[in-house]
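Project standup — Tuesday

K.O.: blocked on the structure for the chain from last sprint. Re-posting the sequence here as requested.
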Amino acid sequence: MLNKLNNKIKKNTEILALSLLIIITIISTSYYNYNKKKIYNNFKSTINNIYLKKTITHLFNNLEPKYKKIYHEVSSGETFNSILEQYSINQKEILEIKNKLSNKVNLDRLNTNQKIQFTLDQSTDIVKDFLFQISNTEKIYLTRKNEKHEFNQKILITKLEKKIDYGENKIIQSLYKSALDKSIPPSTIIEFARIYGFQIDFQRDIRKQDRFQIMYEIFIDDNGKIIETGNILFANLKLSGQDNSLYYFDKKNSEGHYDKNGKSVKKALMKTPINGARLSSPFGMRKHPIDGFNKMHRGTDFAAPKGTPIMASGDGIIKKAGWCGGGGNCIVIKHNSVYQTVYAHMSKFSSKIRNGVRVKQGQVIGYVGSTGKSTGPHLHYEVIVNGKKINSQKLKLPSGKILKGDERKLFETKKIKLDVLKSEKIIGLN
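H.V.: unblocked you, prediction finished:
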């Protein structure tokens, strides 16, 4: 009986102890969680404090490095002074930099996209060093000599390696896109189109599945980056199965591209002064899109996106570059005593284009727009022969030069060498 009682007391004691342990654990846990939540809420409140936020933001905003690298690409209309002034460089500093550069470059005429690079001490707004791009291969580097406004000058020359590349492809959508797909540089594609612009209308003469071949010079730096492009040595447009091969001949006074028979592709005027455009309105009678009545259209309209480059169709002198009433911004070129050409509705002219300037055939003179009396972006192009406006698309132009004698022999030798080089490029030997 006594043993039973002892066992019962012992068992109840164990239950009581366990219960107490559980109660203590619950209370401790609750207290811990309460304090944890309280601490978290206090921390959250501190973080969200608006004054603390402002203080932290101010501190981080002012933690700038002492020196800052500035990279600037010249935009249209910018001057050397205006560029440096926007970075808080004082006039004395600007004058010293200009004096150091002026013996090498004309700072009054900056080129669009020309690159300027310098290191600025943000604590004093003083230039530590200055790099000015003269050309793709030449730069002027100025380094501060001392604390005064004095600089040392050094000319940096990038040595380029000449290589010859080759590409060919089917023309699926356009020549430009098909050539880009083969990583041919845009400048080379434009030159390719210009060469054939004397005899081919790229809008109407090109058919899907026609092919092109092109072998051209490139100049690369030590990193293998193309810095400049050179001459197109060989070109071929295979149209409807017919080859139209051209070879580059570099003899002085006869430099240019010739067909396999030694005949220059260059003519008095290019067939069209714009590439990739659609003939939207031919020469002749038509209902005027704005005036609404039948009127003689004494030019040819080429529809193209705004900003498309317009080329001089032949060598000549700018007779007029300005506003032409209904023609908007227009250019008139006098080629010789017989031929003149007119380019109307331009958005803008190329730099350095003004009255009296001499231009070369294929040179970009302006860009497609819709200025004047116009319903949309296009080029209105006129050809004037002996004072009379004629249909440019039916104009029979004098053919280019034909190589003869010793020049013809030299050309034939050059042609064979280019054909061999092309074959090596095709099979991967060179």
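K.O.: great, moving the ticket to review. The mean pLDDT is 82. The first helix runs from residue 2 to 47.
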